[in-house]
Amino acid sequence: MVACKRLNRLIVIVLSWVALSSAAPSVEQDALPKMVFAHFIVGNTRPYNVGDWARDIALASSKGIDAFALNVGRDDYEASRVADAYAAASGTNFKLFMSFDMTSLPCGGGGDAGPLRDYINRYAAHPSQLRFDGKILVSTFGGEYCSFGTGSLNQGWQNAIKNGMPPVHFVPAFFLDPSSFGGYPVMDGAFNWNSAWPQGNYDTNFDSDNNHISHLGGRSYMAAFSPWFFTHYGPDTYNKNFIFRTDDWHFVKRWENLVEHRSSVAFVEALTWNDFGESHYLGPLHGDLSRSDDWTAGYDHQGWLDLLQYYIQAYKTGVYPSVSQDRIFLWSRLSPAGANAPDRVGKPDHWQWTQDNLWAVVFLTTPAEVQLACGAYIQSTTLPAGVGKAQLPLQQDCSVTATILRGGVSTLHFAPKGFDFRTNPRNYNFNAYVAAS
After folding, report:
1. What are the chain's domains?
2. Pfam families per the record (predicted)?
């Protein structure tokens, strides 16, 4: 069921692509608190208990994440897992809020609002419930087709989550042309899900964000961030097999855009903490992996978390933190995009969009030479103090290493275990291998 929901979700994303125009943001939101959330797929927590939630909450909180957006669908165990999450968050500063997965939950009749209202009412007074401007924050994935029996999107959602309810601040991810937002006063803001990745073969930019912001009339804007995207389900399972382009240090460039435009961005939601099937998980590989083992086993992404923490602090404060320790962050695929493999699923759609490069982000206390190597191929870059970027083409069977040198002397040598590029892969795995010194 979980992967089926993810299939429906990806269909919504693909069908919702629209031509996005660039427009200057018109709203200043500096006075609003900056918060960062992580999208959490409750459907992948069937085996979780309160202790599992507590560990995830502690880890996320330690990196500057303020809340989990709890993506809930129709599976019968999800309400119990949500209760466990709220129990685990009790007594901490970490918050939770509902993000209704409308590709799973029905919304055609008036009675379909019942589960949504139950969730909101059940946790309205809970100390771990996230509030914004004194109201309960509620979001969605999809739902732009929901009428709840009224024949109207706006009236349907008004009846479902606002009429006769505690005050709600509603920031849905509706896949609509932003120019239509003025017709939906039930929206207190908008969550721009597709801003997390370029929707074509180009670098990340802020055009989609600007288009949303310019049509919100001062309402809250929630931007998305995601480090990666690859899914590889065959037609005999969930039949989704494609990538989004996350080359050219997409992780860092997306955050640089968010920090630059922070005055117009009320919230950032990281996609995701645990959507393993789409390879954009930031948390540990734990719980129900949603049949993703072929491309997630051995691909721990937690090496990204300290890098995420750095940019979260910059977004919240408007000032990039000083670098107090040399660090190296590395990621890449482990085989060429153009390689052929004995894989019954086949190459993912858009495989031509990605380059065979190692991407490096380096924290330096003082200027240094940074040397990236894979086998006999070595490339050196001189970088200033602070945060710098480097890259290395990957062309042959080799193992990745990175070295920081000052005055010709190595001050940090990093040889991450398992970071081995192979030109003849056994399957098409476009997931990112991530390592941090």
Report:
1. 2-317 (3.20.20.80), 327-436 (2.60.40)
2. Glyco_hydro_71
